[in-house]
């Protein structure tokens, strides 16, 4: 099996120095890539800027902005059987990127933020492209309020087969608690532990699910 | 000599997940701290979130926001002889931090950014506090346009003894090119090389300058 993994944050610049981002460490996505390689799968890891070395045995595509992540992911996805989208994409960007560095003059600055490309939705739309058996898509949702309801909405809006749901407490840490949400909003699995352990559980689950013919 | 070093970026949150920051890697500040320790000085390293291990022999104070960096730096500065302020402080913050996570609804979001605490100016103001011989203050300036003129303005506005001037190309990289700017705007020194090498040159310069009675 050949699998695309997205990982890490993206950055969206206000000027040449200041940007909008989030504290995603990439640990979960890198752990998933390592678990895929350990299970004998091919892996393409498209990653935003993080302080981690890519796991051995993965193809590695570093990106910085959301548009770059979308382009690299769409290109890699064409040759993959599925995607595990663990990246914490920066989903807003300044409408205008100022060249150079905004000089401070003491006054407040009003910045208009617009939504960036939706990487996961773009992959979901292409899942059946050129294939008799559509590629599978597993998204990640990080929800603070109404988590299961929002995860299910995300699953549907982005044509995911399953969504891995976790909370803001997972960001940057070494451990995570995650629920695997199915297409009717049901909690298929609950995993808790180190990110490598949960990544291993997720890859095991995918292997069994694919072997069973990917039941809905 | 006991020296405060500030390093790394700070983060200013829009909500519990999204923040404003910059790509400062902390490499220059950590190299300065290591050079101070190697030269036999005591060092307190106040650092924003970076992917580096604190150099052995330094007191280490991790912070996240600009307000935290200001508070930790002011506290440490009271017991120091000088400061090398290499941090790339996030100088704007959202006027409002939303609890939880802003939900996307497709519409643009307007964010008002206001200036954060000026850490370097706060230290400059306190340089003479409780001392017959004022503490020395060396700032860093990262300027895209009119670099020397802006560095001199910074030196004056923030009561620095010298300013280390570099350009946006230095951010995140392993090498830097820096000018040491004096109180009349003159270029006292020009250094170029790896960040550890330039940090060593800077500490050597400070040692000689302090030994000479800190001539203006």
Automatic annotation (TrEMBL), chains A, B:
GO biological process entries: coenzyme A biosynthetic process
Residue ranges of domain DNA/pantothenate metabolism flavoprotein C-terminal in the record: 2-207
Transmembrane regions listed in the UniProt entry: none
Gene3D superfamilies reported for this sequence: CoaB-like
Signal peptide start and end residues: none
GO molecular function: catalytic activity
Pfam family, one: DFP
Protein name: Coenzyme A biosynthesis bifunctional protein CoaBC
Organism: Alienimonas californiensis
Lineage of source species: Bacteria, Pseudomonadati, Planctomycetota, Planctomycetia, Planctomycetales
